[in-house]
Each structure stands twice: as C-alpha cells, then as structure tokens.
Amino acid sequence: MTRWSLPLPMQQALAQARAAGDAGEVPIGAVIVKDGTVIAAAHNTPRENHDPTAHAEILAIRAAAKALQDERLTGCELWVTLEPCAMCAGAIAHARIARLYYAASDPKGGAVEHGARVFDQPQCLHRPEVYSGIGEAEAAELLKGFFRERR
User: Fold this and answer.
1) Sheet of 129-132: strands edge to edge?
2) Fewer CB near the last or first residue (10 Å), C or N of the chain?
C-alpha cells in the first residue's frame, strides 16, 4: 500500500509523526475521527513539554474530549502510527474509543498485541475494535530512521 492509497486519517497521523521527528521527538502521530471528520491531531511531545505522558494518543484524546465537551469519545476512531503502550491503551479504554487503527507493531513497548495486551484483560473496561498494519512500512521507516540518526 503506497502512502497515497492509505486512508486519509493515517496519512494525517503520519504527517503528525513526521512533525514530531522534525522537532526531535520520537516520530509518532495520532488523529481522532468522529463521523468521518478529524476532530483532533497530535504528535509526541514528552521532551518539549517535559511530560512523560505527552504521547500522541494521550494528547489527541485530550483534544478530542475538549472538542466534544465529553470525556467519553463514543463512536470515535483513533488512528496512530505505532501500537499503543499500556498507558495509552488504558486511556483508549477509559475514553471508550470505538475503533483503533495503528500502523506499526511495537514488540518492545506495545500493549495491544504485545506485552500487557491491555484489551484482552478481564479488567479492561472497554475493548475497541482493533486494526493493525495500515501504513506499517512508512511508520516503521520513520522510527528506524529517527533512531538510526541518533546512534
């Protein structure tokens, strides 16, 4: 699948990831869609904000909740360039996001299909539909290139 054949929300998430990388942050981007319209977009900013919770998913969830004036993002889709970590997966469940689309898997830090597998736990309050691998090659290359430059 080429960049231009990717769904528009993933193209936008990848653009956010590139912006993060350009700013010296780990290149991860996220967008939240409600009824076909992007209502929030964000990228990683932990270094810029001196905040270990400033992951793209968390920032997008906060912006979407503010835009909708509701802590529940019922009916929303989250498009993100990397498999969410345990913190972000927990936030996704608490926000009641309906569908999660992510590009690259993260065997080291991911918590959806790897590690904690948050949505598979009986204690998980909400389980979104999960779709992976959309834009995987481009997202993985952004991450590999970012870390290659820093080694």
Assistant:
1) 37-43, 29-34, 76-82, 99-104, 129-132
2) C
Q: To 5 degrees, how large is the angle CA 28–CA 65–CA 107?
A: 30
Q: How far apart (Å, rounded) are the C-alpha atoms in residues 8 and 25? A: 23
pLDDT of residue 3: 52
Q: Which of 25, 57, 83, 138 is labelled catalytic? A: 57
Mean pLDDT, the chain, as a whole number?
Answer: 96
57 in active site: yes
pLDDT reading at 2 higher than 80? no
DSSP 134-151: TTHHHHHHHHHHHHHHH-
CA angle 39, 129, 132 (to 5 degrees): 85
pTM of the model: 0.95
Q: Which distant-in-sequence residues (6+ apart) come within 8 Å of 61 by Cβ?
A: 32, 40, 73, 78, 91, 92, 95, 97
User: Rounded to an integer, what distance in angstroms lies between the CA atom of residue 112 and that of residue 133?
Assistant: 13
The values of phi and psi at residue 76, to 5°, are: -90, 155
- 71 and 48 Cβ atoms separated by less than 8 Å: no
